[in-house]
């Protein structure tokens, strides 16, 4: 999975026309990862329960292998849309860390997991994280007018993790709220 992650990072660099196609990759060569197995039991009233509520992943990218039971939904075009499982296919979501690393050119995926009335749903999830002390800085060519056109402040994965794990409920505005928190935290120093 780590090799796949590094290849995806290089492809993302190519997709953005970076002079150094390995720019993003270098943030993850010695990074961390979280691997999780999800289990969602059937629920007789699925409209009254969520497997996981609406959120953006704070990590860089998420690679998901679903079983054959529908449950992943993304918010696109103003409504929740089902991501239908395909045998052997991987779903790749962009998270908040990569959104900041791309200076907002890639958007974090707002999604949720819903439960099924009759079937168990399982998935395997790989979350890509940079090394905790690595400073998240977009490549110079994605910052048009110098520092003034930066969308997000420099931060480390450790800072974002501390913010999201300290009682803050992750949602689709996490990166903006985190940026404000960083600004207020640095003004205290």
List the helices and strands and how they pair.
Layout: H1 2-15, E1 32-40, E2 50-55, E3 61-66, E4 72-76, E5 79-82, E6 90-94, H2 96-101, E7 111-114, E8 121-129, E9 135-136, E10 155-156, H3 157-165, H4 174-187
Antiparallel strand pairs: 1-8, 2-7, 3-6, 3-8, 4-5, 4-7, 9-10
Helix pairs in contact: 3-4
Brief digest:
This is Fe2OG dioxygenase domain-containing protein. This protein is of the alpha+beta class.
Molecular structure report:
It is a single chain. This protein has 189 residues and is α+β, with helices and mostly antiparallel strands. The protein has a single domain (33-187), classed as B-lactam Antibiotic, Isopenicillin N Synthase, Chain (Jelly Rolls, Sandwich), CATH 2.60.120. The protein has four helices and ten strands, in the order αββββββαββββαα. It has helices at 2-15, 96-101, 157-165, 174-187, and strands spanning 32-40, 50-55, 61-66, 72-76, 79-82, 90-94, 111-114, 121-129, 135-136, 155-156. The longest helix has 14 residues, at 2-15. The relative contact order is 0.21. The mean pLDDT is 92. This is Fe2OG dioxygenase domain-containing protein.
